[in-house]
Amino acid sequence: MPEEREFKWKQCLIVRADIKMTCGKKCAQIAHAAVTAFEKADKTAKKAWLDEGQKKVVLKVPSERDLFELKTIAERAGIPAAIIQDAGMTEIPPGTVTALGLGPARSEDLDRITGDLPLL
């Protein structure tokens, strides 16, 4: 078995658990969060994260309010944050807040903010 790598950079992608979405819909919302948060990151974070292998962790929160609280905390810590609102073309009403992308950022910084959240 190969030696376990230590990732110094990652993204945390957080989805609301209180919205009924199919697995595919959740995946799409999480993908939007990953891309949008990445676009907000600075060059150094982007390069380090890309070079290291693009670690991503997908987590869940119980409500929209939780997403906004995490976004505020992350932004105050200087971490790129992106709230995702659905266009409403398929399963859920337009404008529904579905997910949050954080990072890429240093793993230890994200862990301080998201370390208590359950995995999706």
UniProtKB/TrEMBL annotation:
Instruction: Tell me the Gene3D superfamilies matching this sequence.
Output: Bit1
| Record keywords | Hydrolase
What is the catalytic activity of this protein? an N-acyl-L-alpha-aminoacyl-tRNA + H2O = an N-acyl-L-amino acid + a tRNA + H(+)
What are the record's GO terms for cellular component?
cytosol
InterPro entries named among the record's database cross-references: Pep_tRNA_hydro_II_dom_sf (IPR023476), PTH2 (IPR002833)
EC annotation from Swiss-Prot or TrEMBL: 3.1.1.29
Q: Which residues cross the membrane?
A: none
Gene Ontology molecular functions: peptidyl-tRNA hydrolase activity
Keyword Hydrolase (UniProt): yes
Instruction: Report which superkingdom the organism of origin falls in.
Output: Archaea
Provide the family line: Belongs to the PTH2 family.
- What's its job? The natural substrate for this enzyme may be peptidyl-tRNAs which drop off the ribosome during protein synthesis.
| Annotated protein name in UniProt | Peptidyl-tRNA hydrolase
